[in-house]
Known about the structure:
This protein is of the alpha+beta class. The protein is 36% helix and 24% strand. It has ten helices and twelve strands. It has helices spanning 22-44, 49-62, 106-116, 124-133, 141-144, 147-161, 169-172, 229-234, 237-248, 252-264; strands at residues 5-13, 82-88, 93-100, 121-123, 176-181, 187-193, 214-216, 221-227, 271-277, 282-283, 290-297, 302-307. Strand 7 and strand 8 (221-227) form a beta hairpin. Aspartic acid binds next to strand 8.
Amino acid sequence: MNTFSLAVHGGAGTILKANLTPPLEAEYHAGLRAALEAGHNVLASGGSAIDAVTAAVCALEDAPLFNAGRGAVFTSEGKQEMDAAIMDGATRAAGAVGGIFGPRNPIRAARAVMEHTDHVMLIGPNALNIARAADLPFADPDYFFTQSRWDALQSTLEMRAKGVEDDDPARRHGTVGAVACDTLGNVAAATSTGGMTAKAPGRIGDTPMIGAGTFADNATCAVSGTGHGEVFIRYTAAAEISARMRHAGQSLHDAADHVVMHDLAENDGSGGLIAVDAEGNITMPFNCDGMYRGSVTQDGKFETFIYR
Ligand code: ASP
């Protein structure tokens, strides 16, 4: 029997202590902790890694604080288009949705694609049909709306209208994710996001792309990323970590560190990721100021962090 472990993230970016009030800081810690508890409950009762990451990400999607599900950011046209993916390291089964709006928990829609179709990724009306067929709850626009995300869109659009470059990477960041290793040594990853504020309609990021923002394979690791999605895609960030472990014999820590601190950082790819291997080791590297993150292991030690 393995010992289980779980890590979660709530996005990375320009997260400076000076910009967060103590009450807001406390809210982030509580949000991360709730997600860890949701996943821990599954693992502690002998549940699977795939169920644990689903539970943890649902908790983060339900919290308006994070850019996924409720609280997702807005596109340049004032709509919300959500991406999510899930992967089971035991079988390399995967499911993903891109650009959807409606399901309360996009991660469950991704899981429905994995479990109820022959495909890996669905977009458009049929992604919603699969979610409906799986009896997933839907919510209306009021549920998903948050004033702070709307205000962020307005200020980004104002800057664009003036021809000012929006160079605050914090606007571009936000995503939630979880990785877990269960007592059988099976690993899984799940990631969910609203994407980037004022993104072009139809833009899909790294989150639902298997091997970019989400990946899991028992032979190596499970990874969930957050950051500048286009760079994660071009450097196949998550799959690269697995490849380094598989082909170069690197440890989880060394492989993840190389991808985040070199492949991504040196190519305008600010962000970070959480990863776990089949022995339950966890690593959480990031190359920007902060990343909302946390972990829990079988000994019941819950830890949450925001800054370096
Ligand atoms: N990676 C996400 C995307 O590009 C955003 C983020 O994680 O901050 O859609």
